[in-house]
Amino acid sequence: MARPPRFDHVGITVADLDTAVDFFVGLGLEVEGRTFVEGEFLDTVCGIPDSRTEVAMLRPPDGGTSLELASFVRPDHRPGSPAAMANEVGLRNVCFEIPDLRATVQRLAEAGYGLVGGIGNHEDTWLMAYVRGPEGIVVSLAEQVG
């Protein structure tokens, strides 16, 4: 039997890499590295000739799956749907378990990032909320409470 695949990273394309990095660092992720990528490898993988992108890799402090944020230098990025809701087809959110959901939601609101809906309570065991981050990225925040 073949070894199951290892979940390596989630990639998100953004227009403003600095703002996106700051947002996720504010949630507790750490920047592993940041670099530019271009050439045959990138052209082949993404299928866009003569492309160039700046990439930042972030990871939780305890290790685990990383988050790749990429911003295209060439060609220009194409806007997505920043107001997409959970029923729109496509990758809808990235979820992080955090220790204090209400305080985090308050801090993000003060920085201009609002809730998509509200804070849900699942059987007094989990609190969860969707926050719309930079460029419409939906981040799911979860706190185990019971």
Strand portion: 35-45%
CATH architectural type of the largest domain: Roll
Shape: globular
Order of helices and strands: EHEHEEEHEEE
CATH level-4 homologous superfamily of the largest domain: 2,3-Dihydroxybiphenyl 1,2-Dioxygenase, domain 1
Strand order across the biggest sheet?
1-4-3-2
How many helices in DSSP terms? 3
Query: What's the end-to-end separation, in Å?
Result: 38 Å
**What percent of the residues sit in helical stretches (DSSP H or I)?**
10-25%
Number of strands: 8
In the predicted model, the low-confidence regions spanning at least 5 consecutive residues are: none
Radius of gyration: 17 Å
Organism: Nocardioides mangrovicus
Pfam family, one: Glyoxalase_4
Protein name: VOC family protein
Keywords: Metal-binding
Task: Describe the model.
With 146 residues, this protein is an alpha/beta fold. It has two domains: 9-74, Roll (2,3-Dihydroxybiphenyl 1,2-Dioxygenase, domain 1); 94-144, 2,3-Dihydroxybiphenyl 1,2-Dioxygenase, domain 1, CATH 3.10.180. It is built from three helices and eight strands, in the order E-H-E-H-E-E-E-H-E-E-E. It has a four-stranded mixed β-sheet with strand order 1-4-3-2, with helices on both faces. Strand 6 and strand 7 (126-132) form a beta hairpin. The radius of gyration is 17 Å and the shape is globular. It starts with 8 loop residues before the first strand and ends with a strand. The model has no long low-confidence stretch (mean pLDDT 91).
Topology:
Blueprint: E1 9-13, H1 17-26, E2 30-38, H2 40-46, E3 52-59, E4 66-74, E5 94-97, H3 101-110, E6 120-122, E7 126-132, E8 138-144
Parallel strand pairs: 1-4, 5-8
Antiparallel strand pairs: 2-3, 3-4, 6-7, 7-8
